[in-house]
Specification:
Blueprint (H helix, E strand, L loop, with lengths): L1 H37 L19 E7 L5 E5 L5 H7 L23 E4 L11 E2 L8 H5 L3 E2 L5 H4 L7 H14 L16 H7 L3 E2 L3
Parallel strand pairs: 1-3, 5-6
Antiparallel strand pairs: 1-2, 3-4
């Protein structure tokens, strides 16, 4: 009885050994065949990382009531506050509230800081080559009726989406507004509404 058990164990071990040898042989043959047919050993292809775009610095001109007016180069994604700081900050006669310091800068932008009592001052911000057309008026908090969208015009008191669209239709049919008073020609803008929005809009530089 004991001899029969030992014989069964040897048979099982031999079978397992045969399976192991066959498996090793098959894997080795597959590796040899793949290398032989390709002519080159197998190698892993490492993915190439995508290049990170490099943003160029911005060159802006700061004039007016600052300590050191001039041309400055600032890092990309800078804001008007950074340009003012580069120019030595506001001078004592500046009107800081006239400028939106959070406005993003664009290359070639001109920032003029008005002084108290300054007459015939240039626009607070003149857009550079990369700046949206409405940024100049945005810096002073005014809506440029020659460039504003329906959504921007809709922020004005008494101006809903319908009248906002009429303003855009008017300027497309008649050309750019030359004066703010021309808004009275738009249907739906009466004297009361005009009096409310006139201080909040501009025809741009």
């Amino acid at each position: 009885m004991r001899g029969g058990c030992m014989a069964n164990r040897w048979s099982l071990w031999r079978a397992m050994l045969v399976v192991l040898l066959l498996s090793t042989g098959v894997n080795g043959w597959l590796l040899w065949w793949t290398t032989r047919t390709s002519g080159e050993p197998l190698s892993l292809i490492e993915p190439t990382p995508a290049p990170t775009p490099t943003l160029a610095p911005l060159t802006v001109y700061v004039s007016g009531a600052v300590h050191a007016p001039g041309l400055y180069t600032v890092p990309p994604n800078s804001r008007i506050a950074d340009a003012i700081a580069a120019a030595g900050d506001f001078s004592s006669d500046a009107v800081p509230e006239a400028i939106n310091l959070a406005l993003p800068l664009a290359d070639g932008m001109h920032i003029h800081v008005p002084a108290q009592g300054e007459a015939d001052a240039p626009p607070v911000v003149s857009s550079g080559s990369g700046a949206p057309s409405g940024q100049a008026s945005a810096a002073s908090g005014l809506v440029n009726i020659n460039t504003a969208t329906v959504a921007e015009l809709d922020t004005l008191p008494g101006i809903g989406p319908s009248i906002a669209q009429r303003i855009i239709d008017y300027r497309e049919q008649n050309g750019a507004f030359q004066t703010v008073d021309e808004l009275k020609n738009v249907k739906g803008i009466g004297d009361k509404t005009f009096a409310e929005i006139a201080p909040l809009v501009t025809v741009g530089p």
